[in-house]
Amino acid sequence: MVKVxxxxxxxxxxxxxxxxxxxxxxxxxxxxxVGIMGPSGAGKSTxxxxxxxxxxPTAGGVWIDKTDLSSMxxxxxxxxxxEQLGFIFxxxxxxxxxxxxxxxxxxxxxxxxxxxxxxxxxxxxGDLLGLLPLMARYPAQLSLGQRQRVAAARAIIxxxxxxxxxxxxxxxxxxxxxxxxxxxxxxxxxxxTTILMVTHDAFTASFCNRIIFIRDGAYFAExxxxxxRQDFFNSIIDMQASISGGxxxxxxxxxx
Length: 256
Ligand SMILES: Nc1ncnc2c1ncn2[C@@H]1O[C@H](COP(=O)(O)OP(=O)(O)OP(=O)(O)O)[C@@H](O)[C@H]1O
Fold this sequence. Notes:
This is Peptide ABC transporter ATPase. This protein is an alpha/beta fold. The protein has helices spanning about 45-50, 75-85, 100-110, 120-130, 145-155, 175-190, 200-205, 230-245, and strands spanning about 1-10, 20-30, 35, 60-65, 65-70, 85-90, 160-165, 195-200, 210-215, 220-225.
């Protein structure tokens, strides 16, 4: 589904060069919920920007469902972004003047023709994300967690091949974060949506099926969930400790 192939991104010129991504390769299968972790400056945002077709690599390439991102013009990239990708970012980006329902359907009403099954899709994502009672409200009348669920609904109403999430729980308290993560796991399972999520947080990452760790722009290691979420959480903490050369300390995944 996603192939990141020897991806390198160098910013700046000559005396001021920063290698943000350094020959990074990995793959993601359809239906996976993959987390990307790594220390600050590891290249996570750079990777996400390239996957989102917002930036281009210096070398190497990315394929999403057999589409070579480098083969597209700017206009094609914009269409690809709108039609094939869904985005969930930390600061929701909802339009204050539109009710929840119109915020969710925005990616489908923005560029005509509006699909004939718009109401049906709205009903389905509203149901999936527990938003049906909130459809007539405006963003200002929602909690932060509810707003982020609206953003998640908006991200999947187009039936994207891939959802890219950047610290989606960053603005939420732990209760709202847990709720959102349960919904993301549900989207992954029930809507059969492939999700790639960048996060610093081991608790957030423990809702994924697999975590890819990057350091200094290069692949470092990965951890796959086999047993309980608590075990997976502990493995993530271990790997975070080893990536930063520190010692591990386990805490309870549900009290983090
Ligand atoms: N536009 C840019 N120009 C020059 N250097 C950049 C630019 N964007 C990022 N970098 C550098 O590239 C490296 C990777 O940055 P990136 O933002 O991808 O890391 P990150 O893993 O997302 O970090 P964080 O966890 O702190 O958000 C860093 O050294 C950063 O300073």
